[in-house]
């Protein structure tokens, strides 16, 4: 085990075995509930079927969709360029909307939309959605948008957002949704990179009880994008807006359109959308997804991982549609499956900290999909808040976005799931398009903090730095060996960057950039980005493991850990912690927590410093920005803070600095 291994330099040969060493001993297991297992959509046999014939497995998943023309070839693989369901034709919007209406389910609710202002809600059936999407498709055509054209969408969480995406999909235009929290320069670079000719936006949205403007940001961006011909503006907040001759109101343009539109078939490999994901450096990468494979895998995984019962479940994914989680698991997967979903416009603490649980109670949500960062926030706010609501409708809980600390997992299970709901920790990325590694709620005896096994049809592995598979009990780098249907096809306009970023570190394998370990049972634990690994006195220690050890202390709600340069140990562990709501900061808390980490993980993992802070710097997608904390820990001036949700957080943290010495 790593603790006894003498030090090695960053390039030392031993590093591979030691990487992300298995420090944390987690022995809890949660069996699937017997009733859920007995009626589960997917059982253990799916793994065997996929192992016997992976392509036949994906053929069957694709058959869950409606195709205008069946494919000739399941997979054409010219590494690293994949084409799935070659020769097949389908219309993604038809699959998500019309076919459910044709099957007699037009009155079924597609979305319960809950605005942030209380009482502001809408119910949208599949028949409503068909009319809305048809009108929007006709409107885009009137504006001159044709198949293959790019449309940028910069909207708050309102029904017009999925409607716009589906309208694009319907006519074969390629949408590029830009999260509503991004700045004008971020929007401009995304519009430019994709060469979008139309932008769909709104005057603003509601956030924290107040209208928050979007249109001025669009005006600023579009002023520098001569390629944009028209800007369609939804009226949501009725704020005053400046007007240019490119602008047209959504209600003027869309409302007068016919609600009939015939969906044309598109090739399975025609582009569906571009979604930008930030690289660690350089300009954002436009991840390109295509129709057939993407819809196949998002729909199948949504059916399997959440055990979705179309007739009875009410499903809520709390992500923003501006991220891939919302694309795949608010829009495409759930609609392809004919699910009833909830969309919520606002923040979890408006007008009070029980808003999420009030929504669960109001709509009788049965499947909830959220992120560790949200769960840790709820832990911090206190157990008494969810306890006030009736959440007995819940039956499956999901987590995505980061490794989930075991304590957060167990808290989620107990305080939200009433100790009866399985928790599925789902690992995937913008690039993978759909869930790749996850427990199945009716099959897996899940371990808190582990994503467990690759889903049927997926071949993930953990390799050392030479690309050799590590034995059980070993750690290293996560890779995916075989192509999968929802995989990115390339980086928009930059095939070489696609090859370099994902397929060059380990030849012949997809490298997502995450560290992982495989435990003695062969189950997978994701350990964060590989750049979040610290090298302390030659030992590789993952920030995730130290964070989980800190969060396992009853006084800690959240923790972020970074490696700071240290003259003695190479790197030293510096921790930033948020205490739970009812805990007062005391003199000896740092010593207590250092001792706790030493006891949990071993003395090597004991943080050099512990700083109690009120907040942590997070990106708008909820990931902790350790880069900024590293700047603090190394007494440097801060790098770029523009992607933070709230940049004043860094002032609060810096104020704590003197005590860190
Ligand atoms: C990165 C991808 C997947 C949709 C939201 C994020 C991390 C995601 C998990 C998980 C451990 C996870 C990885 C991955 N990640 N889910 N269950 N356990 N890590 O999409 O912004 O493209 O980020 O998020 O590091 O590479 P994304």
From TrEMBL:
UniProt keyword terms in alphabetical order: Acetylation, ATP-binding, Ligase, Magnesium, Metal-binding, Nucleotide-binding
One of the record's GO cellular component terms: cytosol
UniProt-listed PROSITE patterns: AMP_BINDING
UniProt record similarity statement: Belongs to the ATP-dependent AMP-binding enzyme family.
Gene3D superfamilies: 3.30.300.30, N-terminal domain of ligase-like
Positions contributing to CoA binding: 207-210, 325, 537
A GO BP annotation: acetyl-CoA biosynthetic process from acetate
Post-translational modification: Acetylated. Deacetylation by the SIR2-homolog deacetylase activates the enzyme.
Record protein name field: Acetyl-coenzyme A synthetase
Tagged with keyword Metal-binding: yes
Boundaries of every Acetyl-coenzyme A synthetase N-terminal domain copy: 44-96
Entries under HAMAP family matching the protein: Ac_CoA_synth (MF_01123)
Organism: Spongiactinospora rosea
Domain spans labelled AMP-binding enzyme C-terminal: 545-623
Catalyzed reactions: acetate + ATP + CoA = acetyl-CoA + AMP + diphosphate
Residue ranges annotated for the AMP-dependent synthetase/ligase domain, each copy included: 103-484
């Amino acid at each position: 085990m790593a603790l006894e291994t003498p030090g090695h330099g960053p390039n030392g040969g031993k590093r591979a075995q030691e990487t992300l060493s298995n420090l944390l001993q987690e022995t809890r297991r949660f069996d699937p509930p017997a009733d859920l297992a007995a009626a589960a959509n997917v059982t253990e046999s799916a793994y065997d079927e996929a192992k016997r014939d992976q392509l036949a497995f994906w053929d069957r998943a694709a058959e869950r969709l409606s195709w205008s023309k069946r494919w000739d070839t399941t997979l054409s693989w010219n590494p690293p360029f994949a084409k799935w369901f070659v020769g097949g034709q389908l219309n993604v919007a038809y699959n998500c909307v019309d076919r459910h209406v044709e099957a007699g389910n037009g009155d079924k609710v597609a979305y319960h939309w809950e605005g942030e202002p209380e009482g502001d809600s809408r119910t949208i059936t599949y028949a409503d959605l068909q009319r809305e999407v048809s009108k929007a498709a006709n409107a885009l055509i009137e504006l001159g948008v044709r198949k293959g054209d790019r449309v940028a969408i910069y909207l708050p969480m309102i029904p017009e957002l999925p409607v716009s995406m589906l309208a694009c999909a319907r006519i074969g235009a390629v949408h590029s949704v830009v999260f509503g929290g991004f700045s004008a320069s971020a929007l401009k670079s995304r519009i430019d990179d994709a060469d979008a000719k139309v932008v769909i936006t709104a005057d603003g949205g509601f956030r924290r009880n107040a209208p928050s403007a979007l249109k001025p940001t669009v005006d600023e961006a579009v002023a520098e994008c001569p390629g944009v011909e028209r800007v369609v503006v939804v009226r949501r907040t009725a704020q005053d807006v400046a007007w240019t001759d490119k602008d047209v109101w959504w209600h003027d343009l869309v409302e007068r359109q016919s609600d009939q539109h015939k969906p044309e078939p598109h090739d399975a490999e025609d582009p569906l959308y571009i979604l930008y994901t930030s690289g660690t450096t350089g300009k954002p990468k436009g991840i390109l997804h295509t129709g057939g494979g993407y819809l196949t895998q998002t729909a199948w995984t949504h059916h399997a991982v959440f055990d979705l019962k179309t007739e009875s479940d009410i499903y809520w994914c709390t992500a923003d549609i501006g991220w891939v989680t919302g694309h795949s698991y608010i829009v495409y997967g759930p609609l392809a499956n004919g699910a009833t979903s909830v969309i919520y416009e606002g923040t979890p603490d408006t007008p009070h900290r029980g808003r999420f649980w009030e929504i669960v109670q109001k709509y009788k949500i049965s499947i909830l999909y959220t992120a560790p960062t949200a769960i840790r926030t709820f832990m911090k706010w206190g157990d008494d808040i969810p306890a006030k609501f009736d959440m007995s409708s819940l039956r499956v809980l999901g987590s995505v976005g980061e490794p989930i600390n075991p304590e957060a997992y167990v808290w989620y299970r107990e305080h939200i799931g009433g100790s009866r709901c399985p928790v599925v920790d789902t690992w995937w990325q913008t690039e993978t398009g759909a869930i790749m590694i996850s427990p199945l709620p009716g099959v897996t005896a899940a371990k808190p903090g582990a994503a467990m096994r690759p889903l049927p049809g997926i071949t993930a592995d953990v390799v050392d730095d030479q690309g050799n598979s590590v034995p059980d009990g070993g750690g290293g780098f996560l890779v995916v060996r075989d192509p999968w249907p929802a995989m990115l096809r390339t980086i928009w306009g930059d095939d070489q960057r696609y090859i370099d970023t994902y397929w060059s570190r380990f030849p012949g394998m997809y490298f997502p950039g995450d560290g992982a370990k495989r435990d003695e049972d062969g189950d997978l634990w994701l350990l964060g980005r590989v750049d979040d690994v610290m090298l302390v006195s030659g030992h590789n220690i993952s920030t995730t493991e130290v964070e989980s050890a800190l969060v396992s202390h009853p006084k800690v709600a959240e923790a972020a850990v970074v490696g700071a340069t240290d003259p003695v140990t190479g790197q030293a562990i510096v921790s930033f912690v948020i205490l739970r709501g009812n805990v007062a900061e005391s003199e000896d808390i740092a010593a207590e927590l250092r001792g706790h980490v030493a006891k949990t993980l071993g003395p090597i993992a004991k943080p050099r410093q512990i700083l109690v802070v009120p907040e942590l710097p997070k990106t708008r997608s909820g990931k902790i920005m350790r880069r900024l904390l590293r700047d603090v820990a190394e007494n440097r001036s801060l790098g770029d803070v523009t992607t933070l949700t709230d940049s004043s957080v860094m002032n609060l943290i810096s104020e704590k600095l003197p005590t860190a010495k």
